Amino acid sequence: MTASRDQFGRAIEYLRISVTDKCNFRCLYCMPAEGLQWLPKSEILSYEEIFGIVAQLAEAGVSRLRITGGEPTIRPQLDVLIAKLRSIPQITDIALSTNGVRLAELAGKYRAAGLNRVNMSVDSLRPERIAAIARRSIPFDPRVAAAAAERAGLGPIKLNVVVMRGINDDEIADFARLTTDHAWHVRFIELMPVGDMRELTWDHVVPSSEVLERAAIVGSLAPAGNAPVGNGPAQYYAFDGAPGSIGVITPMTHTYCAKCNRVRLTADGRLRTCLFGDHEVNLRDPYRNGDELAPLFLRALAEKPQEHALLQMKTGGLRALSQVGG
Fold it and tell me: Cα–Cα distance between 95 and 149 in angstroms, integer?
């Protein structure tokens, strides 16, 4: 089955699935400190409903999945969903985005269920700073979690770092050094000021060009020959002889919308065709009514916007990135 195309000819084969709007962190750039008004349980898709929706979208060309939240590992028995999704013949890749807090205990179970890869959100290597950014005191070493995922076979391991000037940008070189000792791929992401997190502004954005300059303190960087497999827009570089790589993701300074290959399914069953757009299609209610979803999916792709308007500070109604899993 070939991927369906949107109105601009982009092949849409990648679906990000938010399984919960809740999280055990309250990261500065992702969720208000007080949290959000959680979705009622009756509005959240069950695992059977997620499976049924994905099975229909797979018939329309979706082949690669990423499970997100909120924080997906706090939803019980996530391995059950992973196994269900793995049973869909058209699905070739299932990845997980997580803050890593529960990864050491769950990595093996997820791998056995059929998970391929994992991305961890890691915004500091210092315990006190992790707590400050997450606004939660949860004892946790992201390096231990990454190593556990690696041992379980969930590679390549990707560590996503949202760089914030004056908050964690002094750790750029420390993160870069991880790639010289481990086959890990550290991706530095430009801060995206969104909704209720607007206290983080353009003043906190560190352009990726500056990130690369500061990472080069560790050594000379060149385009990576060992770039990891994946579905995202990162550009990769590596130090000579390093087993890992450094990636930069540039939503603010260089948009990558022209190559967008993704749509998002929210925890309450809405297909969101652009992270920062306001275009959504309700799939939950038609699915519960027994309707075919392929026509809705194809119509949604025909209306998918050409690019986001984040640079104009338009966020498509998002109060927080946690609402759609980034």
Answer: 12
Cross-strand partners of 135: none
- Total Cβ atoms within 10 A of residue 40: 8
* pTM, two decimal places: 0.90
Residue 203, SS3 per DSSP: helix
Residue 235 has pLDDT above 80, yes or no: yes
Q: State mean pLDDT over 79-103.
A: 97
DSSP code of residue 197 = G
Euclidean distance between CA atoms 161 and 117, whole angstroms = 17
Domain ranges in the chain are 10-323
**What percentage of the chain has pLDDT greater than the value 90?**
70
d(CA 70, CA 23) in angstroms, rounded, equals: 5
pLDDT at residue 276 is higher than 70: yes
205 contacts 191 by C-beta, under 8 angstroms: yes
pLDDT tens digits for range 117-156 = 999 999 999 999 999 989 888 888 999 999 999 999 999 9
C-beta separation of 320 from 196 below 8 A: yes
| Euclidean distance between CA atoms 69 and 72, whole angstroms | 5
DSSP string of 3-65, one letter each residue: PEE-TTS-EE-EEEEE--S--S---TTTS-TT---PPPGGGSPPHHHHHHHHHHHHHTT--EE
Instruction: Say whether 235 sits in a helix, a strand or coil.
Output: strand
CATH number assigned to the domain covering 10-323: 3.20.20.70
Dist. CA 266–CA 208, nearest whole Å: 29
Give one DSSP letter per residue of 123-173, joined into a string: --SSHHHHHHHHTS-----HHHHHHHHHHTT-PSEEEEEEEBTTTTGGGHH
Between CA 71 and CA 62 the distance in angstroms is: 23
- Band of the pLDDT at 39, cuts 50, 70, 90? confident
- The mean of the pLDDT values for the chain is 89
Nearest to 58 by CA among 6, 1, 116: 1
